[in-house]
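Task: complex structure prediction.
Instruction: return structure tokens for all chains below.
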Amino acid sequence: MITVRVKLPTHLRGLAHVRGEIELAVTDPVTQRAVLDALEQRFPMLRGTIRDSATGRRRAFVRFFACETDLSNDSPDDPLPDAVTAGTEPFLVVGAMAGG
Amino acid sequence: MSGVRVLVGTRKGAFILTADGGRADWQVDGPHFGGWEVYHVAGSPADPDRLYASQSTSWFGQLIQRSDDGGRTWQQVDHDFTYEGGAGEHLWYDGTPKPWEFARIWHLEPSLTDPDMVYAGAQDAALYRSSDGGRSWQELTGLRQHTSGPEWQPGAGGLCLHTIILDPTNSARMFTAISAAGAFRSDDAGVSWQPINQGLRSEGIPDPDAEVGHCVHRIALHPSRPDVLFMQKHWDVMRSDDAGGRWREISGNLPSDFGFPIAVHPHEPETVYVVPIHSDSEHYPPEGRLRVYRSRCGGDEWQPLTEGLPQSHCYVNVLRDAMAVDTLDEAGIYFGTTGGQVYVSADSGDTWAPIARDLPAVLSVEVQTLP
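Output:
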């Protein structure tokens, strides 16, 4: 297992009852899917809020960033950057900028 | 002394407003779920401490919250709303087929007798039921899979199932309404459904008398007389005396028969309330004057109620789920506006006062009468 730092947007931190970054134990290889699986396993209340429950696809207004790169449209099975795996950079779940 | 608890859903959270039976001094609690859209908060008639709330955003989707202590604390319950047996297709705005796609829950209707049973109305239109306090949801597929379903087309607000009414004298009978499909009735506890739109006329559809395609905004009934239904349609205020078998127009002398909510007095089955709105392109009151209209004879003749309501420069809307009545001896009438005001009348509508003036845009108002 590899420890990955994850930063959630405000609304999801509220749902998960956490503050600041969280650390997740993720199976190797570390991919978006592996991180999100681990996240939803530890915080079941987040199921459906990042990925659609039925299709598993990223919700349209949610983005994934790491190492100043937008990974949102990468394959969920692509390996995440080494800096995320090494724990030097967090994996960011971001609410897309939109009014309202 | 008895009291009331007003459950307010807004664009940016839920608020709980409480007062004793005098309804003059109010405590405002909230926001709950701050920053989230709360389309509806509803309390169980069988257990007033059991509340359900529909919480959503475009970013993170739909959640359902439940409280077992009158809204002091909440727990997230299940929010998996699946279209059973495949999504199927309805008509999109341009007339092409479009697969059903879940967006949100507009309305929650707790059972009249069982706190753990609650119905939920979805966009795209579907009816769900939970029998375990929200821990799981099952679709009542007979409505969405009605033979007319492929012809349903959304209104401007989406293809939303926004009204669910349970007949208090007949547990097998339910009513629902969908924009812009129309009204439907079930006589077998939601298993099968029939459109109940005869007598409605909607000039915005090719056949004004079509079986479906009517933009029903809200239906209300008095519990002592559940065969009599009152409807605020996109245009027209309507009445049926045979559980929706046939409708007739009762708009009478209203300054506009466009509007969203409709409510029935808790003790006078022929007393009905609407809030006329200028038109479907100008969602504000005629002449900038916020007026509730009351009929004491079941429609056709309406009286404006203005005392305590702004009578100049008022350009708010009152949405379909944002009007409610309590059941105290001196009946209370409540409504919320898109300008964030919640008003109460503790004398059946004769005079009004604001409970709150500066909430986020109000999506829904419910009231519980507490012992």
